[in-house]
Amino acid sequence: MNKRERVIVGAVKVNKPFVYHNASYECAAWWQDEEAQLGAHPLYLQRQYHSPNNLELVADIKGKVVSDYFPGLWGGVAISNKPYVPRHVGEETCIRKRIEIDDAVRSTGSSPGNDLDVFFKPDWWVVVKNEATNELAKTYRRLPEFWAEYANLNKENFVPSRDGHSFSSEQEWKLGMVGYFGERLSKWARRLQLISRHEGYRGMNGERSIISHEMYHDNVKWANEVQIANYEGKCLV
User: Fold this and answer.
1) Cis peptide before 144 (omega within 30 of 0)
2) Does residue 13 fall inside a structural domain?
3) pTM across the whole model
């Protein structure tokens, strides 16, 4: 899956409207408030646009503008001598809400009726499992490199780099990199544990299911309102 591909792998259901404050405009003073609309909305699997380009889940939630502020400004100061009147109230919009993958796995099959219900089709879990397996191995291979750089620091023979880093700042940076890779190891290992555990709840790993087939389908039937893609071996990493 490249950075521009998106596939519908689940759904979210808004049971309690929330307002998203959208301040992502070229002018820092501009904004609009968007209210999420009740009902089921598609959940997409895609790659992050920034490094390290890992997989992420993003829900496209229909919304409506409830307030906005887009006045003409000069140096950050409104130039009109009249009070600003909102221009876009009532217009439809799309709220893109990031859903943590681990949270989506935990929520799938749970009793519905929360403020926001989440369904991540279990057929697609293998895609994030493959990524977690690959990233875990990659991180483990790189950790010794950064551990060695940290462990081999010696204050007695330390030579500052050309940018003038002191021994303490160099030590802090290298220790930070060790910590970063440690956190990554924990992230991927825990994700694999989580998915394996929830596969067990559903009997996907060959063991007896803890959750009955009927209960599961009753809990997720609301997601049928969204046309979720079937997993056909695509998007493997």
Assistant:
1) no
2) yes
3) 0.86
Q: What is the pLDDT of residue 234?
A: 60
End-to-end CA distance of the chain: give it in Å, rounded.
Answer: 7
**Helices and strands (DSSP H and E) totals, the chain:** 4, 9
Share the mean pLDDT of the chain. Answer: 90
**Per the structure block, which two tokens stand in for 109?**
């099959």
Question: With contact defined as beta carbons under 8 Å apart, do 41 and 62 qualify?
Answer: yes
Closest CA to 220 of 106, 109, 103, 59: 109
Report how far residue 85's alpha carbon sits from residue 70's, in angstroms, rounded to the nearest whole number: 9
Determine the structural domain holding residue 64 and report its residue range: 6-124
- From start to end of the chain, where are the E strands? 6-14, 19-22, 31-36, 39-47, 55-69, 73-74, 77-78, 92-99, 116-120
